[in-house]
């Protein structure tokens, strides 16, 4: 099973694969953060959301 780690501020820190019968680590979820630059996790809603500013996201885009 693929899992996604977050830190004490609920910011995405990485991912790993664990066995199907292994216990989920305390600071991890099986919910995938898709299409986000700086993902932050909400434990109550079990969702990821974007924490990056619009300016930061635009700065990552290639210049024409």
Describe this structure in words.
- The longest helix has 7 residues.
- The mean pLDDT is 95.
- Helix content is 11%, strand content 33%.
- It has one domain.
- A 3-stranded antiparallel beta sheet has the order 2-1-3, with no helix packed on it.
- It starts with a strand and ends with a helix.
- With 64 residues, it is mainly beta.
- It has 1 helix and 5 strands; from the N terminus they run E-E-E-E-E-H.
Give, in spatial order, the strands making up the sheet with the most strands.
2-1-3
Q: H/E series, N to C?
A: EEEEEH
Computed over alpha carbons, the radius of gyration is 14 Å
Strand tally: 5
- Number of separate domains: 1
Molecular shape: elongated
The chain-level mean pLDDT equals 95
Indicate the low-confidence ranges by residue numbers.
none
* Sheet having the most strands: 3 strands, antiparallel
- Measured between the Cα atoms of the first and last residue, the distance is 40 Å
**Which class best fits the helix and strand makeup?**
mainly beta
Number of distinct helices: 1
Strand content: 25-35%
Helical proportion, percent range: 10-25%
């Amino acid at each position: 099973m693929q899992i996604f780690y977050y830190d004490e501020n609920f910011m995405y820190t990485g991912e790993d694969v664990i066995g199907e019968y292994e216990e989920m680590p305390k600071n991890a979820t099986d919910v995938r953060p898709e299409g986000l630059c700086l993902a932050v996790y909400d434990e109550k809603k079990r969702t990821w959301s974007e924490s990056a500013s619009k300016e930061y996201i635009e700065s990552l885009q290639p210049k024409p």
